[in-house]
């Protein structure tokens, strides 16, 4: 069991913003702030607003922890601004964030590192206007096998994501996807055990926490993720230990190949034949009461306050 120590230091946690995941970010920020304060750190929780930069310039914290979800929190832009201010911050640098934030780029990167990912295509909304929606959808259905998953190429919390079991469901899925972004990723839906594998690095190299198995009544959508009742979690996952080690290795491979730092979460499907299919990676995992990262940490024997302190005071970017 890892215990929190004493000591000072000022941490500013960024939470909120204007993305569709604002509420999740605020809940994550409050949780981490409470934990860090319990270890003796001075913690400010600040929204992403017009007062932020003057505040940061005034207090000059020891480190900033961006716990923002959605575009500004995960596309590297906030980290670029923190770099311009000469402030240390927790987590992945801006260039690597942009690669991980783009699901197609992340997939191409991890494929190059030897991981598997479902067959997919990436299509912008403009292409449907230029070529006509039905011919493009017909081409998709001729190339990829049902069922399909349609999702925005950027974003999280399953917003705009649809499982398509029948061809006549695809047009509506595209409309729902384009409500959250201008580019859609359409991939074959693989069957198996859904696993979330968190990775943490407090200075000694990336270590995968115990994989969390996700069992959902219905789709693992926004409601299932953040409102208790519809989803059951098993941490560690109910899988042979040797297979769990392979899954953890895959998550570390994704973390390393994308150049991520401090923490990440990789989502995979473990097929019945043992194939591990990479779905996506998150550079700012949720830290709410139902989030996967804290569940994995507890399963690994970590005291959350101690772990968050180690992350906050560990390797940083500037």
Automatic annotation (TrEMBL):
Entry function: Cell wall formation.
InterPro entries: ATP-grasp (IPR011761), ATP_grasp_subdomain_1 (IPR013815), D_ala_D_ala (IPR005905), Dala_Dala_lig_C (IPR011095), PreATP-grasp_dom_sf (IPR016185)
Pfam families per record: Dala_Dala_lig_C (PF07478)
Keywords attached to this entry: ATP-binding, Cell shape, Cell wall biogenesis/degradation, Cytoplasm, Ligase, Nucleotide-binding, Peptidoglycan synthesis
GO cellular component, one term: cytoplasm
UniProt record similarity statement: Belongs to the D-alanine--D-alanine ligase family.
Protein's cellular compartments: Cytoplasm
EC number, UniProt record: 6.3.2.4
Primary location group: cytoplasm
UniProt entry tagged with the keyword Cell division: no
GO BP annotation list: cell wall organization; peptidoglycan biosynthetic process; regulation of cell shape
Catalytic activity: 2 D-alanine + ATP = D-alanyl-D-alanine + ADP + phosphate + H(+)
Name of this chain's protein: D-alanine--D-alanine ligase
Annotated PANTHER family: D-ALANINE--D-ALANINE LIGASE (PTHR23132), D-ALANINE--D-ALANINE LIGASE B (PTHR23132:SF23)
Pathway assigned in UniProt: Cell wall biogenesis; peptidoglycan biosynthesis
Gene for this chain: ddl
Protein's organism: Cellulosimicrobium arenosum
Enzyme class: ligase
Keyword Disulfide bond: no
Domain ATP-grasp span(s) in chain numbering: 107-313
A GO term for molecular function: D-alanine-D-alanine ligase activity
